[in-house]
Design goal:
Elements (H helix, E strand, L loop, with lengths): L1 H9 L1 H56 L1 E8 L5 E6 L4 H7 L23 E4 L17 H10 L2 E2 L5 H4 L7 H14 L16 H7 L3 E2 L2
Parallel strand pairs: 1-3, 4-5
Antiparallel strand pairs: 1-2
C-alpha cells in the first residue's frame, strides 16, 4: 500500500491530466451527437419542401397532355361510327382504326390516311359507288335560296376528300392528291387563289374552277 500511495503521489499530476482529457473527450462526443440530432428536422423540412415543389410540375405536365386531346367525328363506311377522343399527333388512319376499321363496302382509296387530325374534324369514309348528294342541288332555281344551295354545292378545298376533288372539271386522281398533299404540308387554303400554289393549277385552270370551289 505504501508503494501504491507513493506511486500516486509521484504521478498525481499525470493522473489528474488524464482524467481531464477523458472528461473533455466525453463532453465533445456528447455535444457532437446533439448537433447531429438537431440537423435531422432540417433535412426533413428540406425534403418536404422539395416534394411540394415537384407537385406543380406534375400538374403542368398533366394540363399540357390534356391540351393535346382532340375529338373527331368518324362517319361512313367504318365498323363503329362515332365521336372519338384522340391526340393532335394522330392521323386519319388512327381515327379509322379507333372506329374499328373499314367495312367491306368502304372506298379506301378515297381517304387520305396520312392527313393530320384537328379538333372537331370530321372523317368521312364513302362507300364504293356512293353518290354525292350535293349534285342533286345543281340546276335548282329559287332566287336567294337557289344561291345558297349553289354555294353549298361548291367543293371545299379544305375539307374535300379524294373522291370529291375529282368532281372538279379537269381534276383527276393525281391532281386531287396534289391538293390533299399541299393541304397536309401547308395547312388549310386561306383563299381560292391559294390553289394556284399547287402544281398543275395555273391561272387559266384556276379561273375555270373559281365558281366551283370554296374555302372555309
Amino acid at each position: 500500500m505504501e508503494k501504491i500511495s507513493e506511486y500516486i503521489r509521484d504521478n498525481l499530476k499525470i493522473i489528474i491530466g488524464s482524467l481531464v482529457i477523458i472528461v473533455a473527450l466525453g463532453v465533445f462526443y456528447l455535444s457532437k451527437q446533439e448537433k447531429s440530432s438537431d440537423k435531422k428536422p432540417e433535412n426533413l423540412e428540406w425534403s418536404a419542401v422539395n416534394n411540394k415543389k415537384s407537385e406543380p410540375e406534375k400538374e403542368t405536365k398533366e394540363e399540357k397532355s390534356a391540351g393535346d386531346d382532340i375529338f373527331v367525328d368518324v362517319k361512313g363506311a367504318v365498323q363503329n361510327p362515332g365521336i372519338y377522343k384522340l391526340s393532335a399527333k394522330h392521323r386519319v388512319s388512327d381515327a379509322i382504326a379507333r372506329a374499328g376499321g373499314f367495312t367491306e363496302e368502304a372506298e379506301r382509296k378515297a381517304v387520305n390516311l396520312a392527313k393530320k387530325l384537328q379538333d372537331e374534324a370530321e372523317v368521312y369514309v364513302p362507300a364504293r359507288g356512293e353518290v354525292d348528294t350535293r349534285k342533286l342541288l345543281e340546276g335548282e332555281s329559287g332566287g336567294a335560296a337557289g344561291s345558297e344551295k349553289e354555294e353549298k354545292s361548291k367543293i371545299n378545298l379544305n375539307t374535300a376528300d379524294l373522291t370529291e376533288l375529282q368532281q372538279l372539271s379537269g381534276v383527276g386522281a393525281k391532281k386531287a392528291q396534289d391538293i390533299i398533299d399541299y393541304r397536309s404540308e401547308n395547312g388549310n387554303f386561306k383563299s381560292v387563289e391559294d390553289l394556284g400554289k399547287v402544281s398543275g393549277f395555273g391561272p387559266k385552270t384556276l379561273e375555270k374552277l373559281r365558281d366551283a370551289i370554296a374555302v372555309d
